[in-house]
């Protein structure tokens, strides 16, 4: 008998992608093989995102396409499953909008997918489970499997910050940290399979409060120290951190742990205190800048990335100017900026929003131009420096060239042997181009 096939598509953030890998691994353990062709699949899984309206709408158009393929390929037995944050938010309502969907599961019930597939096959009735049955999903997942030299490890689930614009606390539940030993074992197993760079994942990794084997509570700084001790791990990243719990202990970790990359993604959302308060972010611009100042005191050339929302309800020109000023003050290396998207059920959805969409789009454009200029300036300043990079594999530039990634997420091409793939090497930056850097091994 040939193995059944699963087609999976991820629409969301890194946590969503992490969940996707776990879903595939789990189904492989249950006798499935992965396929990249919908028409060959016995099970199609869309792992969805509802952070902005556009992300959510993408899911429904993709579902329509899948239904058509199922019909055209005469795959009557194909099951269609919707997981992730849209599933969590909409639940059964997905079935009224897309009645051909067989399974709806949430980010905290993904481990139940094999069982739900069995139930649909037995009963021919759609199955919906979007509960938050606590963190025990991790106890029902497949053994961690490395896919190259980089890997993601979830350290906490959910979010309890309830920023006024955001769906995440409703779609993924409240913050729960995984016990420290579980995280360390997962990292160690990945390291034993050749992983050198680990990215610790969570909506607010610095809210981590993991139980230790002695029954104490470890904070994020302590977790980082332990992860850094694991043999084989050479580089540690994390995402996303939140300014509210960016403690001095975490800042000090940058002085103690060389393996922590010289890069941090710390979303600020706005440079106006009035807007930050309306967003319920829980910090002021001054507090944000104080974190950056203290980080730079320890790592002067640390690269800072951020997220910015433009056009939050009530954002005036003056508020927007304050955001531009903050960008100048901090000198972000990257800012992931989006126009505010009204999310039903969130408190901000009820705020008066009288800024025309064209004005918001114009603000976004101004912000992105400013961001690109700064990113180019930072790349220029890397000329002549020596960077420790993780080699990804042969470069698209052609023969003899290898591609690698710097701490601050830039691709460097350099002459090197394919055997360097998945290793860390030092390269000197010899040329800076708009989208890539050139280097030579030192
Ligand atoms: N937990 C992280 C970010 C999670 S969501 C944090 O708090 O920083 C990723 C990004 O999506 C956010 O940083 C924010 O910039 C953006 N985002 C979230 N909700 C949004 C909305 N309703 N409209 C536009 N952007 C939004
Ligand atoms: Fe959303 Fe705020 Fe939680 Fe981030 S911290 S996931 S923006 S509620
Ligand atoms: Fe999207 Fe859910 Fe992630 S809403 S951004 S997939 S946590």
UniProtKB/TrEMBL annotation:
Domain MTTase N-terminal span(s) in chain numbering: 4-122
Binding-site residues, [4Fe-4S] cluster 2: 159, 163, 166
SMART domains according to UniProt: Elp3
Residues annotated for [4Fe-4S] cluster 1 binding in this entry: 13, 49, 85
Localization, UniProt: Cytoplasm
Domain Radical SAM core, first and last residues per copy: 145-377
Catalytic activity from the UniProt record: N(6)-dimethylallyladenosine(37) in tRNA + (sulfur carrier)-SH + AH2 + 2 S-adenosyl-L-methionine = 2-methylsulfanyl-N(6)-dimethylallyladenosine(37) in tRNA + (sulfur carrier)-H + 5'-deoxyadenosine + L-methionine + A + S-adenosyl-L-homocysteine + 2 H(+)
Swiss-Prot/TrEMBL cofactor(s): [4Fe-4S] cluster
Family statement drawn from the similarity comment of this UniProt entry: Belongs to the methylthiotransferase family. MiaB subfamily.
Assembly, per entry: Monomer.
Its job: Catalyzes the methylthiolation of N6-(dimethylallyl)adenosine (i(6)A), leading to the formation of 2-methylthio-N6-(dimethylallyl)adenosine (ms(2)i(6)A) at position 37 in tRNAs that read codons beginning with uridine.
Protein's UniProt name: tRNA-2-methylthio-N(6)-dimethylallyladenosine synthase
Biological source species: Parasutterella secunda
Lineage: Bacteria, Pseudomonadati, Pseudomonadota, Betaproteobacteria, Burkholderiales
């Amino acid at each position: 008998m040939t193995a059944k096939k699963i087609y999976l598509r991820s629409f969301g953030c890194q946590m969503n992608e992490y969940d996707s890998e776990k879903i595939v691994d789990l189904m492989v353990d249950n006798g499935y093989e992965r396929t990249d062709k919908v028409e060959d699949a016995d099970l199609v899984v869309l792992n969805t995102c509802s952070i902005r309206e556009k992300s959510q709408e993408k899911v429904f158009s993709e579902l329509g396409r899948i239904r058509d393929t199922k019909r055209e390929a005469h795959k009557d037995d194909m099951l269609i499953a919707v997981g992730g944050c849209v599933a969590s938010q909409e639940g059964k309502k997905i079935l009224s909008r897309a009645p051909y969907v067989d399974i709806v599961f949430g980010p905290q019930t993904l481990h139940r997918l094999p069982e739900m597939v069995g139930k649909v096959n037995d009963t021919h009735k759609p199955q919906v489970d979007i509960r938050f049955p606590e963190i025990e999903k991790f106890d029902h997942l497949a053994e961690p499997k490395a896919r190259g030299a980089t890997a993601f490890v979830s350290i906490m689930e959910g979010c309890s910050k309830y920023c006024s614009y955001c769906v995440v606390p409703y779609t993924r539940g409240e913050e729960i940290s995984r016990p420290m030993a579980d995280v360390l074992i997962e990292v160690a197993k990945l390291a034993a399979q050749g992983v050198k760079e680990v990215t610790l994942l969570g909506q607010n990794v610095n809210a981590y409060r993991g139980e230790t084997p002695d029954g104490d509570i470890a904070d994020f700084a302590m977790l980082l120290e332990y992860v850094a001790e694991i043999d084989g791990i050479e580089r540690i990243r994390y995402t996303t951190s939140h300014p509210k719990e960016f403690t001095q202990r975490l800042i000090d970790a940058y002085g103690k742990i060389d393996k922590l990359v010289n890069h941090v993604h710390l979303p600020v959302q706005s440079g106006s205190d009035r807007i930050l308060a309306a967003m319920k972010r829980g910090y002021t611009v001054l507090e944000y800048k104080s974190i950056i100042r203290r980080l730079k005191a320890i790592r002067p050339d640390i690269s800072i990335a951020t997220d910015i929302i433009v056009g939050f309800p009530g954002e005036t020109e003056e508020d927007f100017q304050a955001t531009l000023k903050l960008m100048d003050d901090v000198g972000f290396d990257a800012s992931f900026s989006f126009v505010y998207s009204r999310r039903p059920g969130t408190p901000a959805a009820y705020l008066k929003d009288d800024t025309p969409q064209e004005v918001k789009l114009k603000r976004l454009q101004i912000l992105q131009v400013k961001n690109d200029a700064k990113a180019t300036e930072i790349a220029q300043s890397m000329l002549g420096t020596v960077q420790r990079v993780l080699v990804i594999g042969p470069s698209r530039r052609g023969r003899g060239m290898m591609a690698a990634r710097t701490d601050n997420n830039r691709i460097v091409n350099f002459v090197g042997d394919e055997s360097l793939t998945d290793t860390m090497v030092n390269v000197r930056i010899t040329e800076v181009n708009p989208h890539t850097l050139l280097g030579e091994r030192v």
